[in-house]
Each structure stands twice: as structure tokens, then as C-alpha cells.
Amino acid sequence: MEILQNRRWICLTLTLILKLNCSGEVESCTRRKVKRLLSFQRYCHASRLLRGLVPHTPGSLHLLDDDYLGQAGHMLSKVSAWNFDIFLFDRLTNGNSLVTLMCHLFNVYGLIHHFQLDMVKLHRFLGMVQEDYHSQNPYHNAVHAADVTQAMYCYLKEPKLAGQLSPLDVFLGLMAAAAHDVDHPGVNQPFLIKTRHHLASLYQNTSVLESHHWRSTVGMLRESGLLSHLPADMSQDIEQQLGSLILATDISRQNEFLLTFREHLDNQDLDLQLASHRHFILQIALKCADVCNPCRVWELSRQWSERVCEEFYRQGDLEKKFDLEISPLCNQQADTVPAIQTGFISYIVEPLFEEWQRFTEPSLLSQTMMGHLHKNKARWSRLRFTHPTSESQMQPHVEEDPEPEEQSLLFTV
Ligand SMILES: *[C@@H]1O[C@H](CO)[C@@H](O)[C@H](O)[C@H]1NC(C)=O
Ligand SMILES: [Zn+2]
């Protein structure tokens, strides 16, 4: 009976999702999309098993689920581990890492019950977010979003923070992480401005991408009706707070946030009873999660580094093709992966995580992250000088770093 009911539920949601995502034309759906949706339905059923909602009885449906659970489900039981391999998780979930992870974390925190969320609407929303990431971007794709969400989850669990957070804080933190780069075009803001992209004029050349990620998220929230049962002022507040969190990921505002954070820590005046202070810490946590790649174990860290540089180089190739000036960091011949990474770590990641460690102290996770950060930095440093660029081979003494301010500006454009 339970199986029959579940099967009916699965068919119903699948039909719904197919209709909603494909405007009634199931035929136009790609096979990959259908495959993803199917495996997602399996996960939903499986997660009910995980939570003990469905008694585990043998049956053909369950055999499928167990097979599925055996891999991705086993990984989910260790989702708070800092060495969580999101690339593997994405393969095991058939490209559904973001939806699967978010569903799981919403269950872990009881957010569906707390906010009385409609499961079908939640699936619709998360599916839309995941699909709106560009899978052809080497870096800014749904796996990056899932990775940032997993890091955010680890930060929300920090002893200094966990006990102070309200369900709304957790909801906002996870939602902002999942959606913070949605529909990223794989090129940066200066590129959009100089090519007179409509987004640049829409957002008047400021936080162009971040504004777009936020407004797209709001659009999908409204389209899915996920928050339509909440009082208007509450859903408005959620939209505004999501905006403030997502806009904080604009790297050109890094100094502003870092200085304020440092000041709070120096004055020891952060009061997490205050919603405004918790919001500030969520902004910082999201910023940390967004640039935490160099704090991961080398094997994961290296993959992200190569991906982000590949995305830069593609922009550089586009600029070359259209006779535009090649942007900083985007020239594959001059800007090597080790050089980009050592700069990024020294001027963006290290200063931020030093303050985060001060805030979270004593924190095992922060210690682990700083350990990886220093090792990875040293490794990129060695690689930088053992594999110099052709340019520096000709002029071996010009490899001097520019002034710190100049160098950090490269990353904040
Ligand atoms: C945005 O930048 C472009 C190119 O520099 C410039 O032509 C345009 O006037 C700027 N728009 C705004 C609103 O500042
Ligand atoms: Zn990001």
C-alpha cells in the first residue's frame, strides 16, 4: 500500500515537473533532463526512507532506491565533512547535486515543516535554480553552487554560530548559497560593460552579475510560488535579505566587508542575539563559502583552480576574437594557473579566512581550512617557479609581484 501510494505520488510530481519545466511539451525535454528528474524522484523517495518515514519493505522499487542510496545516500551521511567530494556527489546524483543536497539539508533542519513548504513547489524552485546554472561554464555552474552550499552548511554548524541561528537564518543562508551565482554567463562584469550587455545597463554598471543572480532568484521564487502561503511582509523580507546576502558576494566590495568584520572583532561587539549582526555574519559566511576553494584538500582545490582559470581563459579568447583588450588574469599565455592562484590566495582568501578564524575560535574546521590554505599556497608557489611562462623564461627577473593594492585590484574588477 505504502509502495503504491508512493508510486502514485512519484508519477504525479514527475508529470507536474515535466509539464511545468517544459511548458506542456514533454517531447521537447532532453533525455538528460528526464533522466535527472527520474533520479531526483528516486532520491525523494529514498530520503523519506532515510528519515524513517517509510518502513523499509523489500520490493522492486526499494531495490532501485537502495542501489541509489548506497552511493549518494552514503555520501549524504557525511555531508558535514570538510573533505566532502562534491564532484563525485554530482556524478552519483546524475548532475543533480544542488537539488539533492538542498533537499537533504532542508530535511536535516526541518525547514519544510517549519515554514510549511509545499514539496512540489520546493522541487520546482530548486529544479529551476539548478537548470538556470550554465553547465557549460567550467566554473560558475551548479556544482559550484552545490559546493558553496555544502561549505555554508559547515559554517552554519560552527559552535560559535549554530546555537544562535533561527530557522529563518538557516533558510536564508542555504537559499542564498544555492542561488548566489544563478544564470552566471561565464564572463565578468567588465566584459559585460565593455560589450554593452543589456544587464550592464539594467544594473548601471554596479554589481551587475550579483544583482542579476538575486533578481533571477526572486523571479523563480515567485514563479514557483514557494513562499506564496507566507504573509506578504515576510516573503518580501526574505527576498530583501536574499538580495543583501547575494550582493555581498561581489568581490569588489571585499574591503568594505573585511574592514567592518575586523572592526567588530577588534571591538568584540558582535551580539548574535541581534538579527542584524547575525545577518552580517551570514554575509561573511557566504563570502567565505564562495571563495573557500583554496581551503579544501589539494585534490579538490586543484580542480576548482583549473576550472576557474579555464573560464577566465575562455573570456580572454572571446576578447581576442572580438578585438577587445584582454582582461587581467584572462590571458592563457601570460597568466598561469599557479600565478593566478597565489595572487588570489594572498590578496582575497587569506585575509578573509584569518578574520573568520578569529571569529570562530576555537574551531577545528577553521584550523583544518587554514592548514590546507597554507599548504596549497606553498604548492602553487612552488609550481609557479618550476613551470614559468615562456615570457618569464625570456626575462627571468621580471617575476616580481606588483604592489599589494595593485594586485588585489586585479581580483576585484
Ligand atoms: C556604463 O559603462 C559604459 C562604458 O564605460 C558607459 O558608456 C555607460 O555610460 C555607463 N553607464 C552608467 C549608467 O554608468
Ligand atoms: Zn560563486
TrEMBL record:
Residues 389-413 are annotated as: Disordered. SUPFAM superfamilies: HD-domain/PDEase-like. Zn(2+) 1 binds at H144, H180, D181, D290. Keywords: cAMP, Hydrolase, Metal-binding, Signal. It catalyses: 3',5'-cyclic AMP + H2O = AMP + H(+). Its EC number is 3.1.4.53. One of its GO terms (molecular function) is metal ion binding. The active site is at H140. Pathway: Purine metabolism; 3',5'-cyclic AMP degradation; AMP from 3',5'-cyclic AMP: step 1/1. Belongs to the cyclic nucleotide phosphodiesterase family. PDE7 subfamily. This is 3',5'-cyclic-AMP phosphodiesterase. The gene is pde7b.
